[in-house]
Design a protein that fits this description.
Elements (H helix, E strand, L loop, with lengths): L12 H13 L1 H7 L11 H17 L5 H10 L6 H14 L7 H28 L4 H13 L14 H5 L12 H6 L9 E6 L5 H14 L4 E5 L4 H13 L10 H8 L6 E5 L7 H13 L6 E5 L13 H18 L4 E6 L27 E6 L2 H5 L2 E9 L7 E7 L4 E4 L6 E4 L5 E4 L5 H17 L5
Helix pairs in contact: 1-2, 1-3, 1-6, 3-5, 6-7, 10-11
Amino acid sequence: MIAEKANFGRYGKSFQEGLVQLIFEDRSFADQITEVLDINFLELEYLRIFLQKVMTYRTKYGKHPSVEAFIAILRTELDNEDEVVQKQVRDYYARIHTRELHDSEYIKETSLDFCRKQNLKEAMMKSVGLLQNCSFDEISNVINEALKLGSENNFGYDYLADFEARFAPKHRKPVSTGWKDIDGIIGGGLGRSELGVVIAPTGAGKSMVLVHLGANALREGKNVIHYTLELQDMVIGNRYDSCITSYPLTDIKNFKQEIYEEIKDFDGSLIIKEYPTKSASTNTIRAHLSRLVKRGIKPGMIIVDYADLLKPVLVRKEKRSELESIYEELRALSTEFQCPIWTASQTNRSGLSAEVITMEQISEAFNKCFVADFIFSVSRTIEDKQNNKGKLFIAKNRNGPDGMIYPIFMDTSTVNIKILPPAPAVSAPGQNNQVVTAPVALNPAAQKQLLAAQYTKHRKGNYRR
């Protein structure tokens, strides 16, 4: 009986291409698997050649190749190979240069398991010969060494060995807010693994703003998963209809065919999931998202309307502790599913009459602001509502400046929200006693409020980046 040749052939071409990509891109994984990897485990010649170049560089220079160095290698060190193979190697590199692997953990675990088993198998075969000489200590050493190889060896970020990683481009893959001015200060929009929070008092339009953000992501071809814990799913669906098509909410039923014609060709999909208030937790949302992923619907943006209405996973003595943990869990969800999450938070009573809402007015748990990456507030006085106007204040921004105020146009009848051209500016003290120019004029009372909030921020250092 002829033994089957051990290689990765049964796992397929895409698995092998993904494995070589991970070895090239992940230095710590390369350190681990190269201890047990036989290059002949790869079934495809162009992958063997590609990987051989990586391993030769590592052996010769004692470090992992940078992107620039490897491009030079591919340009100068393939002349001895067949022209077809040369093209395959270069085409493969061009494909993986911008490709993101979504099943990297599976590939890592499966390939390591395969290689370690093959390595242990060889050690056991070698031990058979040692048995004849009764070299028990040597047999023990051979088996133990085989078990050690390929085991977890990632002890953390190595400042020198991982030097290149610090300068590699960081792909946030931001999703636009639909507002050019806001995108400009947060790096194109909210990025994957980031949490954004909209702060507003009751009746100011938090849900409308979340629908605007979701509709813009939908236009970009993203899969938007919208969780509502306050309004019915059909109500949210109608708001999306109005936001996308500009037909008034009151007449939406009269434009059924026109709306369908406008939304039918979207590349992305919109899933609206309704839960009764305080009936769903972040674990409920995680389970629902996992089911969607299994059905081939990978979230491109998650919206939770709104986080304060979620049920805590763990019951705490104080409500503020529960709210803080909810926002931390949402931030973890954004990392787990590699997409931005938008949610909203209610202001306290003082926010109802404030012309500009700062984080001082956030209700219940101020600490929930700490985990958010981007926070903006929407304030609308009675006069603003009558004139379809309001103010948007950038309260926190990890990826750029904050402290700016923007005038907005907000027509709730069509869910139409726009950033208006700036009015004459006023100056307010920002971080490190610098001057932050706000692109809108405020009345004296609002100026005093903003100055006090900014001073408190500078003096106490309460706002963490």
